[in-house]
Amino acid sequence: MKHIFVLRVGHRKRRDPRVSTHVALAARAFGAEEMFFSGDKDPELVEKISKAVTNWGGEFKVQYVRSWKAFLNTWKSRGKSVHLTMYGVSACDTIEEIRLIDRDLLIIVGGQKVPRELYDLADWNVSVTNQPHSEVSALAVFLHMLNEGKEFEYKFKGAKIIVLPSARGKKVMESVL
Amino acid sequence: MKHIFVLRVGHRKRRDPRVSTHVALAARAFGAEEMFFSGDKDPELVEKISKAVTNWGGEFKVQYVRSWKAFLNTWKSRGKSVHLTMYGVSACDTIEEIRLIDRDLLIIVGGQKVPRELYDLADWNVSVTNQPHSEVSALAVFLHMLNEGKEFEYKFKGAKIIVLPSARGKKVMESVL
Q: Which of A79, A92, A120, A135 has fewest C-beta within 10 Å?
């Protein structure tokens, strides 16, 4: 596997602003390079994540794509794709195979109404349990499994704020440059 | 560890309905018995989760508590508590110790503005990375680590709908009783 990207399908600006923000932040924290989203255009979402990256470091980006389907079709020349869905085959049974691919990986998360075509276009349909929970938790647990917990070691370059892990309260190191 | 419970502090009905729903569903899917929440009363949240439980099985419950602080003080006679916060000590360094306790465990998640007292009252302040992401992903990854991935094996009694894991599309078994 080279690099990991996330595609959030069917973002709805009114209903999903916080959930899509959480998806993007989880994507970044658990090792993705970039999040693409389809559905409603949402400059506020892009702006919010850009601010988080300025403060917390790294080069994570968020980008709107007009058509998830066109994007996914183009993606096929670049790498593989995993659609996370509670209806898919267990992550436990597929993760090793997915970890072995030597191309970029696109992880696709949707909301409740995912178009049927997506199930056909993705290389894998994978479940993080077959119970309903959240695209945020599905993505994070899948990336945690895929990267074998390496998110705990990531350093984000150029961070203005660095947390100093603490048993009580909040300790941060802030760059004032 | 006996049983796992979740306390969601500072729920805001207008701003958080979907995030708190996702926290509750993740709590259920990853092995908690019950979620308590403080902040705004929200019968719709309770109702929504109750419907999910009717469909998907098990006995997970959601309950409002007027004061998280009073609740947490009372909890001390019943078990231990872990506050999930990006400012805490790494889950990697604490999870084994937490797994060994032989009492009920309360996992506390908050939003952005968590009262300082909570950091003092919780038995542990634990981080799932020191990066910002989401209470949904923090809770799910922490429970995944704590239960060593056992969420993939859980069966939920009395489910009306059971997913049949599938490489393409949605296959479910529905009880019509």
A: A120
